[in-house]
Amino acid sequence: MNTILVGAQWGDEGKGKIIDVLTEEADIVVRSQGGNNAGHTVEIGKEKFVLHLIPSGILRAGKKCVIANGVVIDPVALVGEIEGLEKRGIKLANRLLISETAHLVLPYHRALDEQRELRKGRNKIGTTKRGIGPAYGDKAARTGLRMIDLVRPKTFSTKLKSRIEENNAILESLGGAPLSFREVEKAYLDAGRKLAPYITNTVVWLHGQLEKQKRILFEGAQGTFLDIDFGTYPFVTSSNTTAGGSCTGSGIPPHRMDRVVGVMKAYTTRVGEGPLPTECAEVSDMLHAMGREFGATTGRARRCGWFDAVATRYARVVNGIDELAITNLDGLDTLMEIRICIAYECRGKRIAFPPNDAEELLHCRPIYRKFAGWQRPTSDVRHFKKLPVAAQRYLKALAELTGARLRIVSVGAQREQTFTV
Ligand code: GDP
Ligand code: IMO
Ligand code: MG
Q1: Does the pLDDT at position 408 exceed 90?
Q2: How many Å apart are CA 303 and CA 315, to the nearest integer?
Q3: Among positive and negative, which fits the CA dihedral 94, 52, 187, 155?
Q4: What is the mean pLDDT of residues 335-340?
Q5: Which of 39, 129, 158, 389 could be joined to 297 by an S-S link, Cβ 3.0–4.6 Å?
Q6: Whole-angstrom Cα distance, residue 265 to residue 328?
Q7: How far is CA 218 from CA 36, 49, 93, 102, in A?
């Protein structure tokens, strides 16, 4: 059984936590897109881990993890992440594989990310400033450097020199500071030496594992509405965050995928700029007052709102979601009344799918259906039938309106605070 797990909203749906749970039934966990813009939280007992590039499956002893070709890697950040995990007793030797064709995020990508955001002013995207957009831009423009270059110092230095010259000219014209070739070369070759034992042809390795009937779990990063093709462009990230990205980002063909799990919160959040039709100050204030919904990568407060079934319906269609994992149900425990957006009203018309134009989305007014709250804690519940009836009704409505089967419910950040339906 090979499973693709995707975020069905705007990212931060709780993918890390659900991956940690599903890894129990998998042999290999693969990241196939995004970079260290991702922040996936897993809480196990008193320990809290936030993974950025390394698949969350690494926290389960014996499981293998792959950073596949579709990911963009900041090698210095990756070394930091590996060392941070090792300090905490997580063993990575012979468990982590890194694709030799994954592209590198270089310091000029981060600098350009920052400069472009500055120049956009009020129209900025609100990126994580990790250089993701410029790195994927270079990949598409065929001017990128890859892991395979990093472990060939001579080739790397030659290519880097010419890339730094070009990017320094751009940076200076934008008012940014030029980079020192020597400094970047040293930092990256040092990181390359440390990463070398992990770098391999992951496509060939993964296919070998498939032949041995190993079960693969694909850990999506970001969410459907941050997808470069299907999201609220231009307020998106630069990769295909939807199910198809798992195939192109790993070299595993579509017919080998057995199911798609969509993760979504019982409400909606978004970090960064861009339209969010169900945004609601009351919901944001409530969740922030509980100490929740601050970004795992940048610490920024997430914008919050009611559950948007127009969005998740579209996510179901685009990803082919079979099963739903609904997280953070406990976040709604105190409310007397809860709303679900069931359709948008856009320029006098009722629509069931989001418009493609982000500008148009700003004109969409959510049409809500009201649900009674349960006003009881759910964090200790471990069976669907033990949930307050109003919570059962609410979850059933989320699944029905989205159009997929409810499979996993999460009522707290801990591994144990989860049950299957
Ligand atoms: P990801 O990027 O999709 O992995 O999600 P993040 O880790 O960025 O954000 C999800 C946040 O919600 C993290 O702080 C998780 O620990 C937390 N979380 C996940 N599921 C639950 C849940 O059911 N209840 C509560 N209270 N927290 C949860
Ligand atoms: P995980 O995997 C939430 C958002 C940024 C910004 C936009 C573009 O933890 O769910 P980028 O740095 O990618 O160019 O930023 O995308 N963003 C995320 N939001 N969760 C993430 O990852 C995100 N990764 C990027 O806030 O709006
Ligand atoms: Mg996150």
Answers
A1: yes
A2: 20
A3: positive
A4: 98
A5: 39
A6: 6
A7: 16, 19, 21, 16
Q: Which of 217, 297, 303, 327 to mutate to test the pocket of ligand 1 (most atoms within 8 A of CB)?
A: 327
**Helix 153-173, helix 107-120: angle, nearest 10:** 20
Instruction: Determine whether the shortest distance from the Cβ of 146 to ligand 2 is under 6 A.
Output: no
Ligand 2 atom 11, closest CA: 127
User: Which ligand neighbours the alpha carbon of 105 most closely?
Assistant: 2
Lining residues, ligand 1, CB within 6 Å: 7, 11-17, 39-41, 43, 296, 327-328, 330, 410-413
Residues 112-133: what's their mean pLDDT? 96
**Percent of the chain beyond pLDDT 90?**
97
Task: Specify burial of residue 121 (Cβ count, 10 A radius: 0-12, 13-18, 19+).
Answer: exposed
Contact by Cβ (8 Å): 260, 320: yes
Asked if 243 and 254 touch (Cβ cutoff 8 Å), the reply is no
Measured in Å, residue 328 CA sits from the centre of ligand 1 at 7
Nearest CA, atom 2, ligand 1: 12
What average pLDDT is seen over the chain? 97
In whole angstroms, give the CA distance from residue 259 to residue 4.
6
DSSP reduced 3-state for 41: strand
pTM for this predicted structure: 0.97
Q: How far apart are CA 185 and CA 149, in angstroms?
A: 12
* Residue 261 CB coordination number (10 Å): 26
Query: Is residue 40 annotated as a catalytic residue, yes or no?
Result: yes
As given in the structure block, the two tokens for residue 371 are: 């649900």
CA 391/CA 385 separation, integer angstroms: 10
pLDDT in tens, 212-235: 999 999 999 999 999 999 999 999
The span from the CA of 69 to the CA of 51, in Å, is 18
* Nearest CA residue ID for atom 18, ligand 1: 413
What percentage of the chain has pLDDT greater than the value 70?
Answer: 100
8 Å CB contact between 334 and 78:
no
